[in-house]
Design goal:
Penicillin V Acylase, Chain A; nine-stranded mixed sheet; 16 strands; globular
Length: 375
């Protein structure tokens, strides 16, 4: 595995696996955003252009995108002013308008407002081992094939005594990662009947604020329930403190936040609601029933997913639809229309006990021991 060292305010390409890395020691939110935007201006511009093309493909106008970005920035200004300041600073560094960066952060909300499921195939599994060791986690992150170059890994300090190591997209506040308190998050998109066009707090901002502020699952739940949402996702929160591991899936929706717990030490989530109080409003599974097949795939491979070795856990995620299996490792069909061209862009495992994250650019089918980055 390739180790990534932290260098304050530095940006670099990792040649072995091609995932860019950024490390910041700046704790002021606006200054940190400006630092990132300046370092990665072409990549942030390209991410915005990629999402603009995706929005056009699903019939969302430029004016709707601008209005959504501006609305999301206003919502963040009320709910998490520091995150709004970071977006403004990032836009300044990247020579973009603040609403443009906010629109990238609001892509889930924009798609929900358009009543479009979009590319959605993520699968997450967490095992709490019987021996009391740290939780064993793995996730495939699947998104639109045209956005292959948006992933970035970074480390930063939202306050001097608190470090976050995260996997996200250029310009997006947060997605998957862990913090120095021993708390980590995975992230899967959902779609609920209550999703609407009002544009609330971006779900990605909820994941980011949990990483920045929470040290326990209860604190993460409190943060999630404080946000006024217009779109849905599940933030899987994993913790390890005092020799004890725990996991809970926080199913975010405008109708409320459902909490899904592990059953006998095993937790898995794909792209449909599991909490009984929210599952009646399920919408994505109606269009993409493969989410149910993928969940069964994970459940059937519980023993492999419990392995202490990340390579063994990655192997358990193998499954291609062409083989008659659940497409946990996702590849777009040649004739798939642009809005739904889902591919596995990254595979991520969190080791919250050791406070480190392993990232592979691509799907489980092309992982080797040398393609992991350890952050």
């Amino acid at each position: 595995m390739a180790e990534v060292e932290d260098h304050g305010g530095t940006a670099k390409e990792t040649e072995m696996v091609g995932v860019p890395v950024f490390a910041s020691n700046v704790s002021d939110a606006a200054a940190r955003g400006r630092e990132f935007g300046t370092a990665w201006r072409p990549r942030v511009e390209a991410a915005y252009a990629g999402y603009q093309a995706l929005f056009h493909a699903v019939g969302v106008s430029d004016q709707q995108v601008q209005d959504s970005g501006a609305r999301a920035l206003d919502q963040l200004g009320e709910w998490a002013p520091r995150l709004a300041a970071e977006i403004t600073g990032l836009a300044d560094g990247a020579a973009l308008e603040a609403w443009q960066v906010a629109a990238v952060n609001t892509r889930t909300e924009v798609l929900a407002a358009a009543r479009i499921a979009g590319p959605t195939e993520c699968s997450t599994a967490v095992v709490l081992p019987d021996d009391g060791g740290g939780p064993r986690t793995i996730q495939t992150w699947d998104w639109n094939e045209t956005l292959r170059d948006v992933p970035v890994v970074w480390t930063y300090h939202p306050r001097p005594d608190h470090e976050v190591r995260g996997f996200t997209e250029f310009g997006v506040l947060g997605k998957i990662g862990l913090n120095s308190a021993g708390l980590g998050v995975h992230f899967n998109i959902l779609w609920h009947a209550s999703d609407h066009s009002g544009i609330g707090v971006p779900v990605h901002a909820v994941a980011r604020r949990i990483l920045d502020e929470a040290t326990t699952i209860d604190e993460a739940i409190e943060i999630a329930r404080s946000a006024r949402l217009s779109a849905s996702s599940v933030v899987t929160v994993v913790t390890y403190r005092d020799g004890l591991g725990d996991v809970a899936g926080l199913e975010l929706s405008p109708a409320g936040v459902g909490v899904v717990r592990a059953a006998d030490g095993f937790y898995a989530h794909t792209n449909h609601f599991l909490a009984p109080e929210l599952s009646g409003g399920e919408r994505l599974g109606l269009e993409r029933p493969g989410t149910y097949d993928r969940l069964r795939h994970l459940q059937d491979r519980r023993d492999e997913l419990a392995s202490p070795g990340v390579m063994e856990r990655a192997s358990a995620m193998l499954g291609h639809s062409a083989d008659g299996q659940a497409p946990v490792c996702c590849h777009a069909a040649p004739d798939e229309p642009l809005p739904t061209r889902s591919v596995t862009l990254a595979t991520v495992s969190l080791d919250v006990a050791a406070r480190r994250m392993a990232v592979h650019r691509g799907g489980p089918c092309d992982i080797t021991p040398d393609t992991w980055q350890t952050i």
